[in-house]
């Protein structure tokens, strides 16, 4: 079945015309520990910087006199048509950032034409989010040591309306989040992940143990393997994607299993100095060879970043921190405005590249500038 979303209608806030503007607005309203949890990465945050630099270091080579008059930014993923190739990456605990939490996110995303990926660690329950959703959404799964709980989460997500299951494979343990350690950050007791309530020790409760500080959750199974992905596909009846792939050999294996490839280094929050996914994207796209969708996240802040990723072989991109900035700054309307701004930038980039649609974004359009 093909579903479609309306094109974004809400004009950006006059003073907030870029994703970076939403960052500044969020920094002004968020308590420092919540801002640091959102903004931070692992250790020296080199990978956080590399993610952004990977896009900065690629230059565009626009052809001229192409006769392109209209641009079409539509993209279809697993039968769902989106007005632009942009998803919201899963981020935990939206209640830290706005009182309406994920309910605001899913509403704002649908109005802005993006598909939301809901984290296992959402503040609201999957049922509450499903009831609030006015557009398509996927479920991000952290496989739990307790496989019955894992199965139940997937079943609940599907019953609540999720149309794909994104399994995060890059977090056997949580990275060294030094901002959080310095802040003694732990989730407030009224913002615990509702989906896991009643299922063992809450994250961050054992503040004396550094490994359990911040938002590390001991219920996550560090021993997830490829067979678990196949098992999930069989029990969920949903398309399954693996989130956190950066290597072409892993991407090839996922494609052979029919598992979608979501390239990511977790926004630089796990293994510092892990490579920026954009660097390995061409090799990953070659290894996958169109068998499954290839998504990418990490450091995407501009429409030109989106077109670079698509030119190098991604089918769509996801943003993490930027939409959380917009949620913090303006709730559902903020999310819609940020997505509208990004969509406009994508349209403009296509027009200036003479690319009538996303299929016209080819590797010859990008080059290292030196
Ligand atoms: C505050 C925050 C919470 C996150 N929570 C999750 C999560 O629950 N599950 C997950 O798979 N990834 C999580 N991520 C990683 C994002 O899905 C994504 O990979 C990353 O943010 C992309 O990089 P960007 O923030 O530079 O766009 C989180 C990221 C942030 C910033
Ligand atoms: C155990 C990790 C929880 C959320 C997360 O993925 C993140 O903060 O990056």
From TrEMBL:
One Gene Ontology molecular-function label: FMN binding
The answer to whether keyword Flavoprotein applies is yes
The residues that the entry says bind FMN are 90-92, 119, 140, 168, 243, 264, 297-301, 320-321
The active site is formed by 266
Q: Where is the signal peptide?
A: none
Q: Where does glyoxylate bind?
A: 37, 142, 177, 266, 269
Q: Where is the FMN hydroxy acid dehydrogenase domain?
A: 11-370
Q: Which cofactor does it need?
A: FMN
Q: Enumerate the UniProt keywords alphabetically.
A: Flavoprotein, FMN, Oxidoreductase
Q: Which family does it belong to?
A: Belongs to the FMN-dependent alpha-hydroxy acid dehydrogenase family.
In Swiss-Prot or TrEMBL terms, this protein is called 2-hydroxy-acid oxidase
Q: Which species does the entry assign this protein to?
A: Streptomyces alboflavus
Provide the taxonomic classification: Bacteria, Bacillati, Actinomycetota, Actinomycetes, Kitasatosporales
